[in-house]
């Protein structure tokens, strides 16, 4: 074990290397590129024995991963934004074919206008593709989640997307504890995995599913991701026992006696916690809930945490134009609909396209949650920091 | 005076131009602090990457885990890698009262005392000259690190040298020489009544 300074991107690359991947297929895109650059370096200098395929697009990158995964190989890819969007149709094939692919998605805004900076619109647009989605708040978590992702993917036979905020995590150097590789090998199961395609045992896969078949096949993905919760929990616990860090589906901060809370995802959770510390000193009973496992959605955990709280702000970093709210808010509201003790919910959008979300803006969000509780009804979505 | 056993979080803002290695300098400092057992973050305000364009980078150092994910608006320390930028007015923006500014400049630090009224300490070093002499190219990031360590004591000089040897594969010894000569040549002005 050693404590080093690493960027979020390099932390992911080290995790994929320590998980001893067999194949990496990727196409460069900012801010993801340093992940696959580092992995190609590991392959080139012999530190990692793997096939590295330079493809001509993200569509091909994920297609290569699907094919390789079907042969039983442990595969990894990484992308961002337009790259993830270009993978769109293959994402559904990866889950439908039950290929345990691990992908790091370094969150970046979608065009137009072209923007390389961070928000969550790329992952939100692929919310319904049948992938498990983990979201991290630090470089350490990026490393840890990537390791857990391999084990989760291979045990539940679903692809896993590890989301880390572009630049805010991907290009930030901070302390990361790297465990001994031997310990990682103990945690990530030994290969080979299920081999469904080989020259000796060839058959067609991903063929037509007519109306008599399609519905049941699709339901299998629904069922698999629903039932993955138990395994995800078990694997996280095992990770905690081995490495001393456990994450659960949601991370709660100062929620025991909170009257007001903010729900977040990703790295800005840290700033929210700093603001909670400051507001607590002023006597405000506030807390933060950060969602770490977004798919499958941690409905029960959220209900348990948010029932009885007076007011909850939900901070979306993506928009759902023309929708009833924005994506994270919609999920939280749905999760709480059946509860008779549901809090008043207020939707916020903040930090689109890499706009910095300041300490003052987080304070303002907590203040607004308090205001709407006093007023007795939520306002329509509040766009924090938007110039008029 | 800023010392390595820092009690509260220190925020550093780096001003340079594309190609001078400002982001690398921010990362080397953070890594040196992490290797000393502290918590640190290094990041940049990334834009389209162009040689010669002004670049901002940031480092935070703390004894405790750093949760904050905003940019730095009120730095404790400002470091300027480009000698033209040192003559501009905006590098001192937001500098905390009693802060420290480290400039790449051939002039003595007293010249800048009036310009940066918030700074209780101004340090100057001819980082461009040192870089050309030691490296043969005006890449000032390693030289300015030597000046920063001299002016602040924020990390140990050896910690910076160790990270440079690990991280810069070609000419690492030349860069270590640049750090050392900048450390030796840095001139410091302390405002009266503060020391």
Short recap of the structure:
With 388 residues, chain A is an alpha/beta fold.
Describe the structure.
The complex is a heterodimer of chains A (388) and B (195). Chain A is an alpha/beta fold. Chain A has two domains: 2-243, Thiamin diphosphate (ThDP)-binding fold, Pyr/PP domains (Rossmann fold, 3-Layer(aba) Sandwich), CATH 3.40.50; 250-383, 3-Layer(aba) Sandwich (Rossmann fold). Chain A has helices spanning 8-18, 33-44, 58-70, 81-86, 88-96, 121-124, 139-156, 181-187, 211-243, 269-281, 299-306, 327-336, 359-375; strands at 2-7, 23-26, 51-54, 75-79, 102-107, 132-135, 160-165, 173-178, 250-253, 260-264, 286-291, 293-295, 311-316, 344-349, 382-383. In chain A, the strands form three sheets. In chain A, strands 3-2-4-5-7-6-12 form a seven-stranded mixed β-sheet, sandwiched between helices. In chain A, helix 1 (8-18) packs across helix 2, helix 1 runs parallel beside helix 7 (139-156) and helix 3 packs parallel to helix 5 (88-96). The longest helix of chain A is centred in the middle third of the chain and has 33 residues, at 211-243. The radius of gyration of chain A is 21 Å and the shape is globular. The model of chain A has no long low-confidence stretch (mean pLDDT 96). Chain B is an alpha/beta fold and 195 residues long. Chain B has a seven-stranded mixed β-sheet. In chain B, helix 2 links the parallel strand 4 (77-80) and strand 5 (99-104). The longest helix of chain B is centred in the first third of the chain and has 14 residues, at 22-35. Chain B is globular. Residues 1-6 of chain B have low confidence and may be disordered.
């Amino acid at each position: 074990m050693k404590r080093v300074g690493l960027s979020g991107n390099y932390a992911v690359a080290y995790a994929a290397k320590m998980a001893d991947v067999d194949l990496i297929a990727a196409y460069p895109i900012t801010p993801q590129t340093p992940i696959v650059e580092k992995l190609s370096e590991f392959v080139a200098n012999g530190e990692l024995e793997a096939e590295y395929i330079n493809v001509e697009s993200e569509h091909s990158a994920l297609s290569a991963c699907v094919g390789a995964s079907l042969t039983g190989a442990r595969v990894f890819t990484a992308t961002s934004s337009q790259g993830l969007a270009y993978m769109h149709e293959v994402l559904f094939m990866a889950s439908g074919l039950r290929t345990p692919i691990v992908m790091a998605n370094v969150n970046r805004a979608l065009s137009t206008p072209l923007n390389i900076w961070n928000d969550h619109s790329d992952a939100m647009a692929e919310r319904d593709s049948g992938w498990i989605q983990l979201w991290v708040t630090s470089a350490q978590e990026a490393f840890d989640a990537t390791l857990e992702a391999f084990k989760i993917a291979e045990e539940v036979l679903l692809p896993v997307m590890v989301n880390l905020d572009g630049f805010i995590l991907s290009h930030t150097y901070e302390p990361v504890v790297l465990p001994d590789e031997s310990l990682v090998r103990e945690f990530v199961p030994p290969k080979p995995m299920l081999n469904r395609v080989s020259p000796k045992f060839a058959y067609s896969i991903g063929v037509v599913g007519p109306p008599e078949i399609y519905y049941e096949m699709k339901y299998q993905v629904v069922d698999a991701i629903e039932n993955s919760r138990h395994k995800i929990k078990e694997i996280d616990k095992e990770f905690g026992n081995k490495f001393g860090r456990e994450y659960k589906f949601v991370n709660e901060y100062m929620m025991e006696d909170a009257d007001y809370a903010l729900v977040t995802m990703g790295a800005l959770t840290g700033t929210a916690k700093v603001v909670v510390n400051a507001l607590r000193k002023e006597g405000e009973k506030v807390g933060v809930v950060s969602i770490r496992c977004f798919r499958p959605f941690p409905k029960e955990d959220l209900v348990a945490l948010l029932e009885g709280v007076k007011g909850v702000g939900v901070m979306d970093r993506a928009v759902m134009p023309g929708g009833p709210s924005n994506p994270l808010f919609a999920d939280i509201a749905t999760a709480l609909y059946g509860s008779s003790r549901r809090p008043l919910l207020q939707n916020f959008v903040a930090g689109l396209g890499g706009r910095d979300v300041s300490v003052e803006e987080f304070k303002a969000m907590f203040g607004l949650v308090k205001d709407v509780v006093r007023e007795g009804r939520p306002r329509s979505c509040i766009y924090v920091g938007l110039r008029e | 005076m800023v010392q390595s056993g820092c009690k509260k979080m220190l925020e550093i803002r780096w001003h340079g131009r594309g190609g001078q290695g400002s982001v690398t300098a921010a990362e080397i400092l953070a890594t040196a602090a992490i290797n000393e057992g502290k918590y640190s973050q290094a990041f940049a305000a990334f834009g389209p990457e162009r040689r010669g364009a002004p670049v901002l980078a940031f480092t935070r150092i703390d004894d405790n885990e750093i949760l904050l994910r905003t940019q730095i608006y009120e730095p404790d320390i400002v470091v300027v890698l480009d000698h033209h930028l040192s003559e501009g007015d905006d590098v001192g923006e937001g500098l905390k009262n009693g802060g420290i500014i480290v400039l790449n400049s051939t002039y003595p630090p007293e010249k800048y005392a009036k310009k940066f009224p918030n700074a209780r300490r101004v340090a100057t070093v001819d980082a461009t000259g040192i870089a050309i002499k030691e490296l043969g190219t005006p890449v000032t990031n390693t030289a300015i690190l030597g000046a920063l360590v001299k002016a602040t004591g924020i990390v140990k000089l050896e910690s910076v040298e160790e990270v440079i040897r690990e991280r810069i594969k070609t000419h690492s010894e030349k860069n270590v020489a640049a750090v050392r000569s900048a450390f030796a040549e840095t001139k410091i002005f302390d405002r009266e009544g503060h020391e």
